[in-house]
Design a protein that fits this description.
With about 80 residues, this protein is mainly alpha-helical. It has one domain (about 15-75). It has helices spanning about 5-10, 15-30, 35-50, 55-75.
């Protein structure tokens, strides 16, 4: 193993953790449509951004989009 391979494995989040972060971001985004849109929307966005460091990028991008839309709707 080279040094770069070891460093790349240390910085990535596991596949399971990425799925959990993505689903939690989506759940917080959906909850933000009905209750506390600012706080739950921001929480969903943060969880999705953290999850972008995992192999589950698409799921986390969907979570970020849902939370961002709920945050914008809640602000307006």
């Amino acid at each position: 193993m080279t040094e770069t391979t070891v460093n790349n494995n240390e910085t990535k989040i596991s596949n399971t953790a990425g799925k959990w972060l993505g689903w939690l971001a989506i759940i917080f985004g959906v909850i933000a449509f009905f209750w506390q849109p600012i706080w739950t929307g921001i929480t969903g966005i943060v969880l999705g951004v953290i999850g972008l460091f995992s192999p589950q990028r698409t799921l986390n991008i969907v979570g970020i989009i849902v939370a961002a839309i709920a945050l914008l709707v809640g602000i307006v």
